[in-house]
Design a protein that fits this description.
With 485 residues, the protein is an alpha/beta fold. It has helices spanning 19-37, 53-62, 66-83, 97-109, 133-138, 166-175, 183-195, 225-230, 232-235, 243-248, 261-274, 306-313, 315-324, 336-366, 381-388, 392-413, 415-421, 424-445, 450-459, 477-483, and strands at residues 3-8, 41-48, 90-93, 114-124, 129-131, 142-143, 148-149, 151-160, 179-181, 200-201, 203-205, 221-223, 253-257, 282-286, 289-291, 294-295, 332-334, 460-461, 464-465. Strand 6 and strand 7 (148-149) form a beta hairpin. The structure holds 5'-O-[(L-methionyl)-sulphamoyl]adenosine. 5'-O-[(L-methionyl)-sulphamoyl]adenosine is lined by residues 9-12, 20-21, 23-24, 49, 229-230, 232, 256-257, 259-260, 288-289, 296.
Protein backbone atom coordinates (compact mmCIF):
# COMPACT_ATOMS: atom_id res chain seq x y z
CA UNK A 1 0.00 0.00 0.00
CA UNK A 2 1.12 3.51 -0.61
CA UNK A 3 1.25 6.87 1.06
CA UNK A 4 -1.44 9.47 0.56
CA UNK A 5 -1.24 13.16 1.44
CA UNK A 6 -4.24 15.50 1.65
CA UNK A 7 -4.33 19.18 2.58
CA UNK A 8 -6.88 21.95 2.99
CA UNK A 9 -6.09 25.62 2.65
CA UNK A 10 -5.27 27.19 5.99
CA UNK A 11 -7.90 29.72 7.12
CA UNK A 12 -7.03 33.24 8.21
CA UNK A 13 -7.44 33.86 11.91
CA UNK A 14 -9.14 37.25 11.60
CA UNK A 15 -12.68 35.89 11.72
CA UNK A 16 -14.88 33.10 13.04
CA UNK A 17 -15.05 29.74 11.29
CA UNK A 18 -17.96 29.63 8.83
CA UNK A 19 -19.74 27.12 6.60
CA UNK A 20 -17.12 27.43 3.85
CA UNK A 21 -14.33 26.43 6.23
CA UNK A 22 -16.45 23.59 7.55
CA UNK A 23 -17.17 22.28 4.06
CA UNK A 24 -13.53 22.34 3.05
CA UNK A 25 -12.46 20.44 6.18
CA UNK A 26 -15.21 17.88 5.61
CA UNK A 27 -14.37 17.32 1.93
CA UNK A 28 -10.72 16.71 2.71
CA UNK A 29 -11.78 14.40 5.52
CA UNK A 30 -13.84 12.29 3.12
CA UNK A 31 -10.81 11.83 0.85
CA UNK A 32 -8.71 10.93 3.88
CA UNK A 33 -11.10 8.39 5.30
CA UNK A 34 -11.72 6.83 1.89
CA UNK A 35 -7.97 6.44 1.37
CA UNK A 36 -7.52 4.91 4.83
CA UNK A 37 -10.37 2.52 4.09
CA UNK A 38 -8.40 1.38 1.03
CA UNK A 39 -5.43 0.66 3.28
CA UNK A 40 -3.35 3.71 2.35
CA UNK A 41 -1.14 5.41 4.92
CA UNK A 42 -2.46 8.93 5.08
CA UNK A 43 -1.28 12.29 6.30
CA UNK A 44 -4.07 14.86 6.34
CA UNK A 45 -2.94 18.34 7.20
CA UNK A 46 -4.87 21.50 7.92
CA UNK A 47 -4.03 24.54 10.03
CA UNK A 48 -4.22 28.30 10.34
CA UNK A 49 -2.76 31.24 8.42
CA UNK A 50 -1.72 33.76 11.05
CA UNK A 51 0.53 36.48 9.62
CA UNK A 52 0.01 39.62 7.59
CA UNK A 53 -1.60 43.02 7.70
CA UNK A 54 -5.13 41.68 7.87
CA UNK A 55 -4.53 39.80 11.12
CA UNK A 56 -2.52 42.69 12.58
CA UNK A 57 -5.37 45.10 11.72
CA UNK A 58 -8.00 42.91 13.33
CA UNK A 59 -5.90 42.42 16.46
CA UNK A 60 -5.39 46.19 16.78
CA UNK A 61 -9.14 46.69 16.42
CA UNK A 62 -9.70 44.30 19.33
CA UNK A 63 -6.87 45.72 21.41
CA UNK A 64 -4.93 42.46 21.23
CA UNK A 65 -1.43 41.58 20.14
CA UNK A 66 -1.49 39.73 16.79
CA UNK A 67 -0.23 36.56 18.44
CA UNK A 68 -2.96 36.74 21.09
CA UNK A 69 -5.63 36.93 18.41
CA UNK A 70 -3.95 34.14 16.47
CA UNK A 71 -3.84 31.88 19.55
CA UNK A 72 -7.49 32.47 20.28
CA UNK A 73 -8.77 32.01 16.73
CA UNK A 74 -6.48 29.17 15.78
CA UNK A 75 -7.97 27.25 18.71
CA UNK A 76 -11.41 27.88 17.25
CA UNK A 77 -10.42 26.34 13.94
CA UNK A 78 -8.82 23.30 15.54
CA UNK A 79 -11.92 23.05 17.74
CA UNK A 80 -14.12 23.16 14.66
CA UNK A 81 -12.14 20.32 13.11
CA UNK A 82 -12.66 18.28 16.25
CA UNK A 83 -16.38 19.00 16.42
CA UNK A 84 -16.81 17.99 12.78
CA UNK A 85 -15.07 14.68 13.40
CA UNK A 86 -12.26 15.66 11.06
CA UNK A 87 -9.48 13.11 11.21
CA UNK A 88 -6.56 15.39 10.44
CA UNK A 89 -3.13 14.19 11.50
CA UNK A 90 -1.56 17.63 11.57
CA UNK A 91 -2.62 21.16 12.37
CA UNK A 92 0.03 23.62 11.30
CA UNK A 93 0.14 27.22 12.47
CA UNK A 94 2.22 29.61 10.41
CA UNK A 95 3.53 31.05 13.68
CA UNK A 96 5.02 27.66 14.58
CA UNK A 97 8.80 28.15 14.91
CA UNK A 98 9.35 25.15 12.61
CA UNK A 99 7.33 26.78 9.84
CA UNK A 100 9.19 30.07 10.22
CA UNK A 101 12.58 28.45 10.16
CA UNK A 102 11.78 26.22 7.18
CA UNK A 103 10.23 29.15 5.29
CA UNK A 104 13.54 30.97 5.60
CA UNK A 105 15.36 27.93 4.27
CA UNK A 106 13.01 27.85 1.31
CA UNK A 107 13.54 31.53 0.61
CA UNK A 108 17.27 30.89 0.42
CA UNK A 109 16.80 27.80 -1.73
CA UNK A 110 14.84 29.94 -4.20
CA UNK A 111 17.55 32.62 -4.42
CA UNK A 112 18.06 32.14 -8.15
CA UNK A 113 14.40 33.01 -8.77
CA UNK A 114 14.20 36.00 -6.45
CA UNK A 115 15.29 39.53 -7.29
CA UNK A 116 14.76 43.00 -5.85
CA UNK A 117 12.76 45.57 -7.77
CA UNK A 118 10.31 48.39 -7.41
CA UNK A 119 6.62 47.56 -7.09
CA UNK A 120 4.24 50.29 -8.12
CA UNK A 121 0.65 49.20 -7.92
CA UNK A 122 -2.30 48.41 -5.75
CA UNK A 123 -2.95 46.27 -2.70
CA UNK A 124 -5.99 45.24 -0.67
CA UNK A 125 -5.20 44.11 2.86
CA UNK A 126 -8.62 42.41 3.06
CA UNK A 127 -7.56 40.11 0.22
CA UNK A 128 -3.87 40.24 1.13
CA UNK A 129 -3.37 40.54 -2.60
CA UNK A 130 -1.79 42.81 -5.22
CA UNK A 131 -3.99 44.14 -8.02
CA UNK A 132 -3.24 45.48 -11.47
CA UNK A 133 -4.19 48.91 -12.76
CA UNK A 134 -6.83 47.31 -15.01
CA UNK A 135 -8.47 45.42 -12.13
CA UNK A 136 -8.55 48.49 -9.96
CA UNK A 137 -10.03 50.64 -12.76
CA UNK A 138 -12.69 48.02 -13.47
CA UNK A 139 -13.84 48.34 -9.85
CA UNK A 140 -13.60 52.14 -9.77
CA UNK A 141 -10.81 52.01 -7.22
CA UNK A 142 -12.81 50.21 -4.55
CA UNK A 143 -12.31 46.56 -3.65
CA UNK A 144 -15.71 44.91 -4.11
CA UNK A 145 -14.87 42.10 -1.67
CA UNK A 146 -14.06 44.45 1.17
CA UNK A 147 -15.76 47.65 0.23
CA UNK A 148 -12.68 49.73 0.77
CA UNK A 149 -10.37 51.64 -1.56
CA UNK A 150 -7.34 49.80 -2.90
CA UNK A 151 -4.11 51.12 -1.38
CA UNK A 152 -1.66 52.56 -3.86
CA UNK A 153 1.77 51.27 -3.00
CA UNK A 154 5.15 52.13 -4.30
CA UNK A 155 7.85 50.12 -2.62
CA UNK A 156 11.08 48.26 -3.07
CA UNK A 157 10.24 44.55 -2.82
CA UNK A 158 11.57 41.15 -3.62
CA UNK A 159 10.04 39.52 -6.69
CA UNK A 160 9.61 35.90 -7.67
CA UNK A 161 10.23 34.95 -11.30
CA UNK A 162 6.78 33.58 -11.96
CA UNK A 163 6.91 34.39 -15.69
CA UNK A 164 9.78 31.95 -16.11
CA UNK A 165 7.53 29.03 -15.16
CA UNK A 166 4.44 29.96 -17.18
CA UNK A 167 4.96 27.39 -19.91
CA UNK A 168 6.10 24.60 -17.62
CA UNK A 169 2.99 25.05 -15.49
CA UNK A 170 0.79 24.96 -18.55
CA UNK A 171 2.54 21.82 -19.72
CA UNK A 172 2.01 20.15 -16.31
CA UNK A 173 -1.69 20.93 -16.50
CA UNK A 174 -2.27 19.91 -20.10
CA UNK A 175 -0.22 16.72 -19.81
CA UNK A 176 -2.32 15.71 -16.80
CA UNK A 177 0.56 15.41 -14.35
CA UNK A 178 -1.03 18.29 -12.41
CA UNK A 179 -4.78 17.81 -12.53
CA UNK A 180 -7.28 20.49 -11.64
CA UNK A 181 -10.90 19.60 -10.89
CA UNK A 182 -13.40 20.66 -12.07
CA UNK A 183 -12.71 21.45 -15.74
CA UNK A 184 -14.21 24.92 -15.45
CA UNK A 185 -11.46 25.83 -12.97
CA UNK A 186 -8.80 24.14 -15.06
CA UNK A 187 -9.88 26.21 -18.06
CA UNK A 188 -9.91 29.35 -15.96
CA UNK A 189 -6.29 28.88 -14.99
CA UNK A 190 -5.28 27.88 -18.52
CA UNK A 191 -6.59 31.20 -19.78
CA UNK A 192 -4.61 33.03 -17.10
CA UNK A 193 -1.54 31.17 -18.36
CA UNK A 194 -2.42 32.07 -21.96
CA UNK A 195 -2.26 35.71 -21.02
CA UNK A 196 1.08 35.05 -19.37
CA UNK A 197 2.07 35.25 -15.73
CA UNK A 198 3.98 38.24 -14.53
CA UNK A 199 6.62 38.15 -11.82
CA UNK A 200 5.11 38.87 -8.42
CA UNK A 201 6.11 40.70 -5.34
CA UNK A 202 6.83 38.31 -2.45
CA UNK A 203 7.83 40.69 0.32
CA UNK A 204 6.59 43.85 2.00
CA UNK A 205 8.58 46.54 3.78
CA UNK A 206 8.76 45.89 7.49
CA UNK A 207 7.60 49.39 8.34
CA UNK A 208 4.29 48.65 6.59
CA UNK A 209 3.69 45.04 7.59
CA UNK A 210 5.64 44.00 10.63
CA UNK A 211 3.63 40.90 11.58
CA UNK A 212 5.27 38.14 9.59
CA UNK A 213 8.40 36.18 8.86
CA UNK A 214 11.52 38.27 8.21
CA UNK A 215 13.26 37.89 4.88
CA UNK A 216 16.60 36.25 5.61
CA UNK A 217 19.47 38.67 5.24
CA UNK A 218 17.32 41.81 4.97
CA UNK A 219 16.29 43.52 8.17
CA UNK A 220 13.83 45.80 6.33
CA UNK A 221 11.68 43.24 4.57
CA UNK A 222 9.05 40.70 5.64
CA UNK A 223 7.80 37.80 3.52
CA UNK A 224 4.48 38.42 1.76
CA UNK A 225 1.94 36.43 3.75
CA UNK A 226 0.68 34.38 0.80
CA UNK A 227 4.21 33.36 -0.11
CA UNK A 228 4.97 31.85 3.28
CA UNK A 229 1.44 30.52 3.84
CA UNK A 230 1.68 28.35 0.72
CA UNK A 231 4.88 26.87 2.07
CA UNK A 232 2.91 25.29 4.93
CA UNK A 233 2.10 22.33 2.70
CA UNK A 234 5.72 21.24 2.78
CA UNK A 235 7.00 22.77 6.02
CA UNK A 236 4.42 20.69 7.87
CA UNK A 237 6.05 17.56 6.45
CA UNK A 238 9.48 18.75 7.58
CA UNK A 239 10.86 19.97 4.26
CA UNK A 240 13.62 19.36 3.30
CA UNK A 241 15.17 16.66 5.47
CA UNK A 242 12.35 14.85 7.25
CA UNK A 243 11.22 11.38 6.17
CA UNK A 244 7.58 12.46 6.07
CA UNK A 245 8.47 14.99 3.43
CA UNK A 246 10.42 12.43 1.42
CA UNK A 247 7.65 9.89 1.63
CA UNK A 248 4.50 11.99 1.33
CA UNK A 249 5.27 14.81 -1.09
CA UNK A 250 3.77 15.35 -3.71
CA UNK A 251 0.31 15.73 -2.23
CA UNK A 252 -2.35 13.46 -3.69
CA UNK A 253 -5.07 16.08 -3.34
CA UNK A 254 -5.01 19.70 -2.24
CA UNK A 255 -8.45 21.09 -1.47
CA UNK A 256 -9.07 24.84 -1.89
CA UNK A 257 -11.89 27.26 -2.67
CA UNK A 258 -12.38 28.99 -6.02
CA UNK A 259 -11.22 32.41 -4.82
CA UNK A 260 -7.68 31.21 -4.19
CA UNK A 261 -7.09 29.19 -7.34
CA UNK A 262 -4.41 31.49 -8.76
CA UNK A 263 -2.31 31.16 -5.65
CA UNK A 264 -2.55 27.38 -5.82
CA UNK A 265 -2.45 26.80 -9.57
CA UNK A 266 0.16 29.40 -10.53
CA UNK A 267 2.24 30.75 -7.63
CA UNK A 268 2.48 27.49 -5.68
CA UNK A 269 3.51 25.41 -8.72
CA UNK A 270 6.14 28.04 -9.60
CA UNK A 271 7.59 27.85 -6.09
CA UNK A 272 7.67 24.06 -6.28
CA UNK A 273 9.36 24.17 -9.68
CA UNK A 274 11.90 26.62 -8.33
CA UNK A 275 12.65 24.11 -5.57
CA UNK A 276 12.78 21.33 -8.17
CA UNK A 277 9.92 19.52 -6.48
CA UNK A 278 7.01 17.72 -8.14
CA UNK A 279 3.61 19.43 -8.27
CA UNK A 280 0.64 18.03 -6.36
CA UNK A 281 -1.23 15.37 -8.30
CA UNK A 282 -4.66 16.95 -7.94
CA UNK A 283 -5.90 20.39 -7.05
CA UNK A 284 -9.59 20.18 -6.22
CA UNK A 285 -11.37 23.53 -6.26
CA UNK A 286 -14.74 23.77 -4.53
CA UNK A 287 -17.27 26.53 -5.01
CA UNK A 288 -18.76 29.07 -2.64
CA UNK A 289 -21.65 28.64 -0.25
CA UNK A 290 -24.31 31.26 0.12
CA UNK A 291 -26.79 31.27 2.99
CA UNK A 292 -30.48 31.67 2.20
CA UNK A 293 -29.45 32.85 -1.25
CA UNK A 294 -27.11 35.59 -0.06
CA UNK A 295 -23.39 36.01 0.47
CA UNK A 296 -22.60 34.96 4.06
CA UNK A 297 -21.97 37.91 6.26
CA UNK A 298 -22.45 38.97 9.82
CA UNK A 299 -23.73 42.35 8.72
CA UNK A 300 -26.43 40.77 6.56
CA UNK A 301 -27.38 38.72 9.60
CA UNK A 302 -27.21 35.40 7.75
CA UNK A 303 -24.06 34.07 9.38
CA UNK A 304 -24.57 30.46 10.39
CA UNK A 305 -22.20 29.07 12.98
CA UNK A 306 -21.26 25.51 11.98
CA UNK A 307 -21.21 24.44 15.62
CA UNK A 308 -24.81 25.55 16.18
CA UNK A 309 -26.00 23.19 13.47
CA UNK A 310 -23.88 20.36 14.79
CA UNK A 311 -25.33 20.91 18.26
CA UNK A 312 -28.86 20.86 16.98
CA UNK A 313 -28.76 18.05 14.41
CA UNK A 314 -25.57 16.12 15.05
CA UNK A 315 -22.37 16.08 13.10
CA UNK A 316 -23.23 13.54 10.40
CA UNK A 317 -26.36 15.28 9.09
CA UNK A 318 -24.28 18.45 8.74
CA UNK A 319 -21.51 16.62 6.89
CA UNK A 320 -24.12 14.94 4.72
CA UNK A 321 -25.81 18.20 3.74
CA UNK A 322 -22.61 19.97 2.76
CA UNK A 323 -21.36 16.99 0.78
CA UNK A 324 -24.54 16.13 -1.08
CA UNK A 325 -26.53 19.33 -1.32
CA UNK A 326 -23.74 21.76 -2.11
CA UNK A 327 -22.65 20.76 -5.63
CA UNK A 328 -19.07 19.52 -5.51
CA UNK A 329 -18.22 21.26 -8.80
CA UNK A 330 -20.20 24.44 -8.30
CA UNK A 331 -21.51 27.03 -5.88
CA UNK A 332 -24.37 26.10 -3.60
CA UNK A 333 -26.77 27.43 -1.03
CA UNK A 334 -27.42 26.55 2.58
CA UNK A 335 -30.92 27.17 3.79
CA UNK A 336 -32.72 26.08 6.91
CA UNK A 337 -35.62 24.72 4.87
CA UNK A 338 -33.54 22.55 2.52
CA UNK A 339 -31.45 21.35 5.43
CA UNK A 340 -34.55 20.25 7.35
CA UNK A 341 -36.00 18.62 4.24
CA UNK A 342 -32.81 16.63 3.65
CA UNK A 343 -32.70 15.66 7.31
CA UNK A 344 -36.29 14.48 7.41
CA UNK A 345 -36.72 12.94 3.97
CA UNK A 346 -33.36 11.49 3.14
CA UNK A 347 -31.79 10.76 6.50
CA UNK A 348 -34.70 10.00 8.81
CA UNK A 349 -37.22 8.60 6.30
CA UNK A 350 -35.03 6.85 3.80
CA UNK A 351 -31.84 5.74 5.55
CA UNK A 352 -33.09 5.75 9.14
CA UNK A 353 -36.20 3.78 8.29
CA UNK A 354 -34.38 1.18 6.22
CA UNK A 355 -32.19 0.44 9.24
CA UNK A 356 -35.05 0.61 11.71
CA UNK A 357 -37.45 -1.59 9.79
CA UNK A 358 -34.84 -4.22 9.05
CA UNK A 359 -33.62 -4.41 12.64
CA UNK A 360 -37.18 -4.47 14.00
CA UNK A 361 -38.29 -7.31 11.71
CA UNK A 362 -35.24 -9.42 12.49
CA UNK A 363 -36.00 -8.94 16.19
CA UNK A 364 -39.65 -9.65 15.85
CA UNK A 365 -39.61 -12.63 13.52
CA UNK A 366 -36.23 -14.20 14.25
CA UNK A 367 -35.44 -13.26 17.83
CA UNK A 368 -32.70 -10.94 16.66
CA UNK A 369 -30.82 -13.62 14.72
CA UNK A 370 -29.85 -12.76 11.14
CA UNK A 371 -27.92 -15.91 10.40
CA UNK A 372 -25.40 -15.90 7.61
CA UNK A 373 -25.22 -12.55 5.88
CA UNK A 374 -24.55 -12.87 2.14
CA UNK A 375 -21.69 -10.79 0.71
CA UNK A 376 -22.39 -7.40 -0.86
CA UNK A 377 -23.30 -7.58 -4.50
CA UNK A 378 -23.72 -4.08 -5.87
CA UNK A 379 -21.55 -2.51 -8.52
CA UNK A 380 -19.76 0.39 -6.83
CA UNK A 381 -17.76 1.46 -9.89
CA UNK A 382 -19.58 4.76 -10.28
CA UNK A 383 -19.24 5.55 -6.57
CA UNK A 384 -15.49 4.99 -6.76
CA UNK A 385 -15.06 7.09 -9.88
CA UNK A 386 -17.05 9.89 -8.30
CA UNK A 387 -14.83 9.85 -5.21
CA UNK A 388 -11.68 9.88 -7.30
CA UNK A 389 -12.96 12.96 -9.08
CA UNK A 390 -13.96 14.64 -5.77
CA UNK A 391 -17.61 14.45 -6.84
CA UNK A 392 -18.87 13.94 -3.29
CA UNK A 393 -22.43 14.81 -4.31
CA UNK A 394 -22.43 12.15 -7.02
CA UNK A 395 -20.89 9.50 -4.77
CA UNK A 396 -23.67 10.09 -2.25
CA UNK A 397 -26.30 9.93 -5.02
CA UNK A 398 -24.93 6.48 -5.78
CA UNK A 399 -25.26 5.43 -2.14
CA UNK A 400 -28.79 6.78 -2.08
CA UNK A 401 -29.71 4.74 -5.13
CA UNK A 402 -28.93 1.76 -2.95
CA UNK A 403 -30.86 3.12 0.03
CA UNK A 404 -33.92 3.74 -2.13
CA UNK A 405 -33.48 0.41 -3.87
CA UNK A 406 -33.46 -1.32 -0.51
CA UNK A 407 -36.66 0.41 0.64
CA UNK A 408 -38.32 -0.58 -2.62
CA UNK A 409 -37.15 -4.15 -2.15
CA UNK A 410 -38.68 -4.24 1.34
CA UNK A 411 -41.94 -2.77 0.06
CA UNK A 412 -42.11 -5.31 -2.74
CA UNK A 413 -41.03 -8.39 -0.80
CA UNK A 414 -43.21 -7.50 2.20
CA UNK A 415 -41.33 -9.60 4.75
CA UNK A 416 -44.29 -9.23 7.15
CA UNK A 417 -46.45 -11.11 4.65
CA UNK A 418 -43.81 -13.80 4.26
CA UNK A 419 -43.81 -14.11 8.06
CA UNK A 420 -47.57 -14.43 8.07
CA UNK A 421 -47.37 -17.18 5.47
CA UNK A 422 -44.84 -18.96 7.64
CA UNK A 423 -42.17 -19.33 4.94
CA UNK A 424 -39.28 -19.04 7.40
CA UNK A 425 -36.53 -19.96 4.93
CA UNK A 426 -37.55 -17.31 2.46
CA UNK A 427 -38.01 -14.80 5.28
CA UNK A 428 -34.50 -15.53 6.53
CA UNK A 429 -33.13 -14.95 3.04
CA UNK A 430 -34.95 -11.67 2.56
CA UNK A 431 -33.94 -10.27 5.95
CA UNK A 432 -30.33 -11.41 5.55
CA UNK A 433 -30.24 -9.67 2.17
CA UNK A 434 -31.52 -6.47 3.79
CA UNK A 435 -28.86 -6.66 6.51
CA UNK A 436 -26.17 -7.32 3.93
CA UNK A 437 -27.28 -4.34 1.90
CA UNK A 438 -27.24 -2.10 4.96
CA UNK A 439 -23.72 -3.19 5.84
CA UNK A 440 -22.66 -2.38 2.32
CA UNK A 441 -24.30 1.03 2.59
CA UNK A 442 -22.52 1.59 5.92
CA UNK A 443 -19.17 0.85 4.32
CA UNK A 444 -19.82 3.28 1.48
CA UNK A 445 -21.00 5.92 3.94
CA UNK A 446 -18.05 5.58 6.28
CA UNK A 447 -15.91 8.35 4.73
CA UNK A 448 -18.90 10.72 4.64
CA UNK A 449 -20.77 9.90 7.85
CA UNK A 450 -18.41 7.94 10.07
CA UNK A 451 -20.61 7.88 13.18
CA UNK A 452 -23.67 6.73 11.29
CA UNK A 453 -21.69 4.00 9.53
CA UNK A 454 -20.38 2.77 12.88
CA UNK A 455 -23.88 2.75 14.35
CA UNK A 456 -25.24 0.65 11.47
CA UNK A 457 -22.30 -1.72 11.77
CA UNK A 458 -22.99 -2.03 15.49
CA UNK A 459 -26.62 -2.99 14.83
CA UNK A 460 -25.85 -5.84 12.45
CA UNK A 461 -22.90 -7.81 13.77
CA UNK A 462 -21.97 -11.40 14.46
CA UNK A 463 -25.10 -12.63 12.69
CA UNK A 464 -27.35 -10.83 15.18
CA UNK A 465 -29.19 -7.59 15.63
CA UNK A 466 -28.32 -5.24 18.47
CA UNK A 467 -31.04 -2.63 18.71
CA UNK A 468 -29.98 1.00 18.68
CA UNK A 469 -31.10 3.31 21.41
CA UNK A 470 -33.63 5.69 19.90
CA UNK A 471 -33.37 6.22 16.17
CA UNK A 472 -30.50 7.14 13.91
CA UNK A 473 -31.99 10.50 13.00
CA UNK A 474 -34.57 11.52 15.59
CA UNK A 475 -37.28 13.93 14.57
CA UNK A 476 -37.67 15.08 18.10
CA UNK A 477 -39.98 17.67 19.65
CA UNK A 478 -37.02 19.76 20.73
CA UNK A 479 -35.70 19.84 17.19
CA UNK A 480 -39.01 21.03 15.80
CA UNK A 481 -39.28 23.62 18.52
CA UNK A 482 -35.71 24.74 17.93
CA UNK A 483 -36.35 25.13 14.21
CA UNK A 484 -39.27 27.42 14.89
CA UNK A 485 -37.12 29.81 16.87
N1 LIG B 1 -5.54 32.02 4.41
C1 LIG B 1 -5.97 31.83 3.07
C2 LIG B 1 -5.58 30.46 2.57
C3 LIG B 1 -4.11 30.18 2.61
S1 LIG B 1 -3.72 28.61 2.02
C4 LIG B 1 -2.04 28.60 1.92
C5 LIG B 1 -7.50 31.97 2.97
N2 LIG B 1 -8.19 31.88 4.12
S2 LIG B 1 -9.77 32.04 4.22
O1 LIG B 1 -10.08 31.84 5.61
O2 LIG B 1 -10.19 33.27 3.63
O3 LIG B 1 -10.40 30.91 3.34
C6 LIG B 1 -10.16 29.56 3.67
C7 LIG B 1 -10.91 28.66 2.69
O4 LIG B 1 -12.32 28.89 2.86
C8 LIG B 1 -10.59 28.96 1.23
O5 LIG B 1 -10.45 27.76 0.50
C9 LIG B 1 -11.81 29.71 0.76
O6 LIG B 1 -12.08 29.53 -0.60
C10 LIG B 1 -12.88 29.04 1.59
N3 LIG B 1 -14.09 29.86 1.66
C11 LIG B 1 -14.19 31.14 2.12
N4 LIG B 1 -15.50 31.54 1.98
C12 LIG B 1 -16.22 30.54 1.42
C13 LIG B 1 -17.57 30.34 1.10
N5 LIG B 1 -18.48 31.29 1.24
N6 LIG B 1 -17.94 29.12 0.64
C14 LIG B 1 -17.05 28.09 0.50
N7 LIG B 1 -15.77 28.24 0.80
C15 LIG B 1 -15.31 29.48 1.15
O7 LIG B 1 -7.99 32.16 1.87
Amino acid sequence: MSNYYVTTSIPYVNGEPHLGHAMEFIMADVLTRAARQQGETVIFSTGSDEHGGKIAEKAAELGLKPKELADKMSAQFSGLAKALNISNDRFIRTTDPGHEQRSKLIWKALAKDIYKSKYIGWYCTGDEAFFTETEVKANNGVCPNHNRPYEKIEEENYFLRLSKYNDAIREAITSGSFQIYPDTRRNEILSVLDEGLEDISISRPKEKVSWGIPVPGDAHQMMYVWFEALLNYITVLGYPEHDDFKQFWPADVQVVGKDIIRFHAAIWPAILMGLELPLPKVLYVHGFITVEGKKMSKSLGNYVAPLDIVKKYGVDPFRYYLLRHIPSYNDGDFSQATFEAAYNNELANELGNAVQRTAAMIEKYQDGVVGEIPPAEHDIGEYKLALQACRFDKALDEVWNQVRGLNQYIDQEKPWMIAKEGDTDHLREVLAYQASNLLEIAELLEPFMPETAAKIQAVFRDGKVYPIEGTLFPKSETKDEASEE
